[in-house]
Amino acid sequence: MSRITKVELIPVQLQLSEPFIISKGALTHAKLTFIKIYDSDGAYGIGECCPYRSIHGETQEGTVAFGKDLAKALIGLDPAHITNHVALMNKMIVGNASIKCAFDMALYDLNAKKLGLPLYRFLGGSREKYIETDNTVSLMSKDLMVAKASKFVERGFKILKVKLGERGRLVDYERIKAIRAEVGDNITIRIDANQGWNYQDAITNLNSMKDLDVEHCEEPVHADNLFDQQRLTSASPIPIMADEAVFNHTDALRVLKANAADLINIKLGKSGGINNAMKIAGIAEAADVYCQVGSFSESRLGISALVHFDYVWSNIKFHDLDSPLMLKDDPIIGGLTYSKDWQVDITDEPGHGADLDPVFLKNCDIISVN
Asked: Catalytic annotation on 163?
């Protein structure tokens, strides 16, 4: 039986190609923390987290501080006992889903590697479904958003995710109306207000967009406002997707029992990793609810693990996997690839198949816990 012998924490900062803007503010850099877990057989697994202050309430500095505590607690334990380790992390620290995700991901990667299995097979999945990513249009002026949408379509994207959430009854409707006119009827448009609307803004905009063929709307009102989520889900002509309202499986159960969403967006960094994401997907499947997999600003490593998870569940119908495309540089070797038509695929390498480039790693600060 192997034991966890060392954990490395690797905080990095990656510049985005351009600012990423949502209703909660702008992001210019992805502040990531990578976790490498080594065992007594000399194997290791690697995970990633991308703390988002306005979503998680976490910072990179916090992930490193809590990561040291979690690492100390795992030293000497059997890495195969993933569920026990997730329970231990939850007992030690409330919330902080982001850093827990990095540890969870590293443990799954390590165990799949030890068995010589790609992660999707370790999880019981198969590479049979077609996965195509969208690309995200940041929240800007209407003209800039139209220009960006047009540019994405020229690059071959057939699915656009458009950030909205500006207060004002028809401001966002005008954005979508203009984008639809620019890109035509053959492009899928989905929208995300990131909790920026109140109920009246939301229902006014959504009713106005009913003839613009909008696929779904993510998190239109505040994530804690279950009453308005219920009202919108009942009244909206456009399906409502819960994102920030569903961090974990108990959130999923609460929201679906209340009929407060038609769809659920699952993010590993929001759920605390694969272990809890599997529970969310299972609850959604039992309720006959489709899901989306989404991201924050993770590199190809984190998104590679997410794609493996995606392959497990037939009720994951929507794929928001564009965060690596927003990064100016790519410090990852192996892992997922994007085709010319923006189909996403992975290899059958053991684990999730991605790792930090050794050349990039030479310039990183590495914090070791033994």
From this structure: yes
Catalytic residue among 267, 320, 322, 355: 267
Query: Is residue 320 flagged as an active site residue?
Result: no
Based on the residue annotation, tell me whether 345 is a catalytic residue of this protein. no
> pLDDT tens digits, residue range 198-212?
999 999 999 999 999
Q: Looking at the structure, tell me whether residues 112 and 210 fall in a common domain.
A: no
Condensed to tens digits (0 to 9), the pLDDT of residues 85-94 reads: 999 999 999 9
Percent of the chain whose predicted confidence (pLDDT) is above 70: 100
Do 99 and 164 belong to one domain? no
Catalytic residue among 39, 58, 109, 192: 192
- The domain total for the chain is 2
Helix ranges (DSSP H) in 7-81: 53-56, 60-74
- Owning domain of residue 319: 122-352
Which CATH number belongs to the domain containing residue 71 in this structure?
3.30.390.10
What is the arithmetic mean of pLDDT over 163-175? 93
Of 48, 201, 218, 251, catalytic: 218
Q: Which residues pair with 302 in a beta bridge?
A: none
Is 329 annotated in the active site?
no
Is 36 considered catalytic here? no
- Is 275's pLDDT higher than 90? yes
Find residue 355's DSSP bridge partners. 333
Q: What is the CATH number of the domain that holds 145?
A: 3.20.20.120
The whole-model pTM stands at 0.97
In a shared domain, residues 280 and 196: yes
Same domain, 206 and 244: yes
Residue 360 to residue 10: CA distance in whole angstroms: 11
- Please check whether residue 141 is in contact with residue 171, taking contact to mean a CB–CB distance below 8 angstroms: no
Which tokens sit at 23? 């209703």
For 32, the 3-state DSSP assignment is strand
Write down the catalytic residue from 8, 228, 243, 349: 243
Please indicate, yes or no, whether residues 185 and 102 belong to a single structural domain of this protein: no
Would you state the pLDDT for residue 55? 85
